[in-house]
Amino acid sequence: MDFSSQESIKEVTCPICQELLREPMSLDCGHSFCEECITAYSESGSPQDLECCCPVCQSRYQPWNLQFNWQLAERVNKFRDVDMNSHQPRKSDLFEHHVENDQISYKEEEEAFSGLCVQEQQGHQMSPKEEVVKECQEKLQEALNKLTPEQQEAEQLEADINEERATWMYRMQTQRERIVQGFEEMRDILDKEEQRELQKLEEDEMNVLHDLTAAVDQVVQQKQYLSELVSDLQYYMSESSVDTLQGVINVLTRSKIWTLKKPKIIPKKLKSAFQVPDLNGMLQKFKELTEIQSYWGK
């Protein structure tokens, strides 16, 4: 397309401000205007009017039904670029730029046969949409370059945490087994100590009960003898005479030498006197022992 022609200039010029279109808005009739110009024109009418007339052909249109013309905006941008570079030498028609549907094209018939194509491509200009796409691609690549190492770091971090978790699980299981074993040993020690104390108590019980039984038998015998002596004394008191004098002497002699023999005193304290062990102290010592074993077991 020859942007230097009057027709091309007219297509990209706003009929209202007579300047290059800025944000071109098209009406249903096909005429296009700057967004700012057509908006000001539409608002200049009566507020009661629901429709306005095209400034060029007077066709009626609805102000809210304007459409942004992307294709025309591209052509305006290309015209600006060509106008700014109009002082540069004109390129060969063989490699003429052609903008159509936001794509960059040029005559490719001799692209594979002419080294001039390389130079032409270097001077080739991209459309705004292509520039946006290129910029997006660059930013995406930049973001990818930033996140890829972090992704690898996250994977390594996950592996490290899983390894640490496995290590802690092993340590916890080992400690659990130590605790169970330790208390089993304590229970075994306590059971043995209990049996030993019960055996001592049983021996004391047998000895004490044997002594008490013997003491009771001794007291019973003395009581029986004393009962007979008292009975004899009472008899001779009531039957005292010359004929019973020898019996009186005998009973008096027996009474005189009589002495109550007390049994052997049983000690108040048992040999197997049991004292409840200091469980808190034992647990503290066990804890200290466990800590020492854990320290040296590392």
TrEMBL record:
<keyword id="KW-0175">Coiled coil</keyword>
<protein>
    <recommendedName>
        <fullName>RING-type domain-containing protein</fullName>
    </recommendedName>
</protein>
<keyword id="KW-0479">Metal-binding</keyword>
<keyword id="KW-0863">Zinc-finger</keyword>
<feature type="coiled-coil region">
    <location>
        <begin position="133"/>
        <end position="160"/>
    </location>
</feature>
<keyword id="KW-0862">Zinc</keyword>
<dbReference type="InterPro" id="IPR001841">
    <property type="entry name" value="Znf_RING"/>
</dbReference>
<dbReference type="GO" id="GO:0008270">
    <property type="term" value="F:zinc ion binding"/>
</dbReference>
<dbReference type="InterPro" id="IPR013083">
    <property type="entry name" value="Znf_RING/FYVE/PHD"/>
</dbReference>
<feature type="domain" description="RING-type">
    <location>
        <begin position="14"/>
        <end position="58"/>
    </location>
</feature>
<dbReference type="Pfam" id="PF15227">
    <property type="entry name" value="zf-C3HC4_4"/>
</dbReference>
<dbReference type="InterPro" id="IPR050143">
    <property type="entry name" value="TRIM/RBCC"/>
</dbReference>
<dbReference type="InterPro" id="IPR017907">
    <property type="entry name" value="Znf_RING_CS"/>
</dbReference>
